[in-house]
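Design review, sub-item: ligand-bound model
Attendees: FS, YL, KQ
YL presented the inputs for the 1,6-di-O-phosphono-beta-D-fructofuranose complex:
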Amino acid sequence: MSRVKIEHLLKSKKCLLLACDQGLEHGPSKDFNEKNIDPNYIMHIALEGHFQGVILQPGVAEKYHVEHYKDIPLIVKLNGKTSLLKGDPYSAQTCSVDRAIKMGAEAVGYTIYPGSKHEAKMFAEFGKIVEQAHDYGIPVICWLYPRGEVIHDEVSTEITAYAARIGLELGADFVKIKYNKDLDAFKWVINSAGRTKVLVSGGDYTSDRDILQECWDTQQAGATGMAIGRAIWQNPKPFSMAKALQAIMWKKASVDEAMKFLED
Ligand code: FBP
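KQ shared the predicted structure:
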């Protein structure tokens, strides 16, 4: 385990992570094709696209984050659920911090669905994970997706800010939340997270410009970065998209300038 990389992730002002846990969350038929169903393809994008980490479920991590992919920092998701069950969601812990450390994790992730009637169970599991991960000196990323019968608009500013704040209150080093599509209001969301860093997710791959605009907006608002999946590995030009996002994040490129990476 490389301590330098852990500290790098914790201290980094900017952070671009590649997420691929959708095989569990959504199933293979919804999001994947013949090419990206192979985790080797995802690992190759993460490594050659210069992502700062790849987020995997434990099974994929154990079988694919090996040999030549060891150079890409591994973030292991410690819980997950399928899209088969309906109703208020609960994402059960399926992997311990110890097991994640053994497979080389440099950070761990956990999803909480605030508002779900199972929220308390997820809070309790998450509390133990923070304690164990911090004992090892590794950061914890908390996916905070407000869901359930009582949540009517999961990306309203009020709910998004609440999600960000829950991450701070519970000890997350990073929160991963959805963008509320309002740059000015997102500043309040960032303020609500305090010293917990904010990453946004990408959603379905729709258009290159939309995802670059989200990156630009959230950067302006003060986000640390993105933990993004489908917009990269469903994209016919994943490396160009990575470069475009990096140009916005590290070189302060405009959306039009970043679009040039995708135009050739
Ligand atoms: P995307 O960038 O592809 O949206 O991935 C982000 C992510 O948080 C994944 O880590 C996770 O599998 C997925 O979104 C869950 O999405 P949802 O619960 O909205 O279906």
